[in-house]
Amino acid sequence: MHRIPENPTRQQVLAFISNSVSYGNLGAFIGAGFSKAVLNDEFDEIALSWGDLLDKASKKLGVDYNAIWKTGVGYPEIASSICKKHSDDSGCDYAHSLSKLKREIAALTSWYPDKEKRDKFSRYLEMLSPSWIITTNYDMVIESLLTGRSIPLGPNDSLSSPNGIIPIFHLHGLRTNPEEIIIAQEDYVSLFRPSEYRQIKLALTIKESTTLLLGYGLGDVNVLTALDWSRNVFRGEEATYPNDVIQILRKDNPREMPYRDKNGIVIVEAEDISDFFEEFMVVHAKKLVERDKAHEVLKKLANKLDDPDGAMIEQFIDDSDFRSEILKELSAFPIDLISGFVSFLNKCIDETWTRSQPKGAFEGYNQNLIIILDILITFSINRFPPALFQSAAYGLQRVGYYVGEEHGKSWAAKNTWDSRKYELKKEVVDELKNIADQHGYCYVKRLTQLIDV
Prior knowledge:
Blueprint: H1 10-23, E1 26-30, H2 32-39, H3 50-60, H4 75-90, H5 94-108, H6 115-128, E2 132-135, H7 141-145, E3 150-153, E4 166-170, H8 197-207, E5 210-214, H9 221-233, E6 245-250, E7 259-260, E8 266-270, H10 273-306, H11 310-318, H12 320-332, H13 334-356, H14 363-378, H15 386-400, H16 411-420, H17 426-439, H18 442-449
Parallel strand pairs: 1-2, 1-5, 2-4, 3-4, 5-6, 6-8
Antiparallel strand pairs: 7-8
Helix pairs in contact: 1-10, 3-4, 3-5, 4-5, 6-10, 8-9, 10-13, 11-12, 11-13, 12-13, 12-14, 13-14, 13-15, 14-15, 14-16, 15-18, 17-18
């Protein structure tokens, strides 16, 4: 499942997030609500919203925040109005006032979680294990939770990091570099340039990931634009990896069932961010146990393929159900099994040739062909491991000489080819013809010419 169903259950959404963690492409958009969840409690309101930050910063600048027009106005415009008022009142130029506001914002966001909260939320983020984090926060609360595992990046930095380190991209700037903070209307102008790296990178990152929104409302035009671009500008084939956008929405009376909003985002309501994490950790822990068991099964199968005994080789040739099960596992986990399987296949094919050596033993050729056809039919061409395709094509070339109704040919093999050749997908047949032309596989060419697709 590469996308969450249209009307998912809560369990399906949490399992999807878990699958994305295991796949390695889960990313997180983190907003002010996350810092509030980490820092604030019923006694202390340490982390502030954007509006509260501007209120406090304006007081530091000696500007009456209540005198600033705010009805129907966004926070960037309010920030610009504060700077304009400060500039007019103090007689300094506007750029100086803007710089002063940014320094006050940097000072006001000097937030650090206590040990108890740090331990709790560090555990949450480590379990979530995001490949990247993008935040609109100026503070470094996330970095304090991922000590030694993350790197802070500013709006002018590339979204990249050393191996094993989570990049935390501060879309609106870092408090440690006040001049880079994006807060006023004019700061946003550069963000909307059509060729801006940031906007393209955001869109591609969302397209290539499962994106989890934590403590973040979709009010930022940058992010809405990136979301739109990821779905409409950078269109492509259906994703072959986990890919969706999920928002954890805090509600006093949360709905049990997730739902999609008008933007197609999956909404999961929770009374508190901590409640979501606790719920996710239970599901993820179970999923990890299941994956460990599945990995052990794959490991055992891979070991058997690397060093098969005669009984396994004979079972693969003679037992169609066993062969089908092996091929099913191979198609689901080609990276884990392909190396051992190619060697195993060659041993099975060799055994069919041994069976064909006695005079009149034409059934061995038929068994040989059946194995090759099963492989060619199992995979679509875009999911076909190249080494396996070459082995199958070469095997078809070798056995192709004996497929026919003439003296010395296998009639059973001819019947098998005639009855099953149309099960081959057109793309596979075309590629067989290509490899036949390139390598001079005359019998492959003769057999595929008999397929009218």
